[in-house]
Amino acid sequence: MNKYSTLKTWVGHKLDVVIERRLRRLADAEDVLHVAVMPDVHLAGDVCNGVVVATKSRLFPQAVGGDIGCGYLSVALGVDADVIDQDIAAFMLSKLHRAVPINKHSNHCKIPIEGKLSSPRLEKFRSREGSLQLGTLGRGNHFVEFQSDQNGRLWLLIHSGSRAIGQLISAHHLRTADIDMVSGLKFLNADSNDGQRWLNDQQWARQYAAANRLAMLGAIQRLVLGPLGIPIDRDSLIHLDHNHVQQETHGGREIWVHRKGAQALLPDQISVIPGSMGTSTYVVSGRGSMDALNSCSHGAGRAMSRKVAFNKLSTKVLQREMNGVWFDERKSNRLVDESPSAYKDIRIVMKAQKALVRTIDRRQPILNFKGG
């Protein structure tokens, strides 16, 4: 057992027994120095979402997840939020289907990223599927949302990641990974050839995910905002991811910090923490908590699994909970698992991480676009 690891939590509720077991297993893994648990923690694969893991020399791909580089892009628009009425909302939703495809484009796009992936198989997938998926949203909790801040200004928020290429990169490197005998999790040594290849491909996927969000922003600007005469304030851009591993210095020591569903936020650095498709997004700045390794939650976190949400909730519940937020109601039966009540209460989540972030603004959703 790794007797030197520590586990710190910032949660506003009693943890599920299964989650507690997963967290303890992670903290006991060989080479793990520290585990920080964010208030949006929930089950997701072998390592929970909403965790930060510090190691000396081992890399744990499962502590990053398959959607490498998934993150947020937030930008202010040059109009007041009340410009969106029923007609404008209908226009936006109809154009978003074209501007931001859910799965693939019909034509290949040039990927604006230098460097190569570590295997011919990954390179082949990059040139084919990677170029078709650049500028696409994906399903699940990925979204495009128009919001109003407390001064009535309109904002755009995009949440998406590295699409299928990130999943493939993760699966590819897990096949060559060793198994930690204590936790059962797979790992690569950072100074090994396999570890260096994983780091190269992980960094490439982070860049791809960032380029993906910027491509969507460009398409929304051309096809949605341009025809409406709505400008973008590029100086207001916030662009961060929450699924990654990177080398950082903490306490005068260089360590590997893995984040899965957790944001890296330096002291006074600005980011956003969304709730669900019908609830508030909080604009925050980091407080610089050493115990949290300068991290915070990436959202509210699921209160129900997708399967439970589909069985327990209904389209009527979804439509009632959206409470005036425009969305494509034709997709209601596919979005039941994204109902606000399928997620934790964002207010409780924010209260639980007061030591990690300070709230500087709050934005209300006006229009939400998801794939379902």
Report on this structure.
With 372 residues, this protein is of the alpha+beta class. It has a single domain (6-369), classed as tRNA-splicing ligase RtcB (Alpha-Beta Complex), CATH 3.90.1860. Helices cover 30% and strands 30% of the residues. The chain has eight helices and 17 strands. The strands form four sheets. It has a seven-stranded antiparallel beta sheet. A hairpin with a 6-residue loop joins β14 and β15 (281-286). α2 (86-99) runs antiparallel to α5 (193-228), α3 (120-133) runs antiparallel to α4 (163-174) and α4 (163-174) packs antiparallel against α5 (193-228). The relative contact order is 0.19. The model has no long low-confidence stretch (mean pLDDT 96).
- What is Rg? 20 Å
Shape: globular
Using the 3D structure, state the CATH architecture. Answer: Alpha-Beta Complex
Instruction: Give the strand order, joined by hyphens, for the main sheet.
Output: 10-5-7-6-17-15-14
Number of H- or I-type helical stretches: 8
**CATH homology group:** tRNA-splicing ligase RtcB
Describe the structure concisely for a colleague.
It contains 8 helices and 17 strands. The chain has 372 residues and is α+β, with helices and mostly antiparallel strands.
Question: What are the main properties of this structure?
Answer:
372 residues, five-stranded mixed beta sheet, alpha+beta, 30% strand, 17 strands, tRNA-splicing ligase RtcB, seven-stranded antiparallel beta sheet
Topology:
Layout lengths: L5 E4 L7 H12 L3 E11 L6 E7 L2 E2 L11 E10 L5 H14 L20 H14 L9 E6 L4 E8 L2 H12 L3 E2 L6 E4 L3 H36 L3 E10 L1 E8 L2 E8 L1 E3 L5 E5 L6 E6 L8 E3 L8 H7 L2 H8 L23 H7 L4 E13 L3
Parallel strand pairs: 1-2
Antiparallel strand pairs: 2-3, 3-12, 4-9, 5-7, 5-10, 6-7, 6-17, 8-9, 11-12, 13-16, 14-15, 15-17
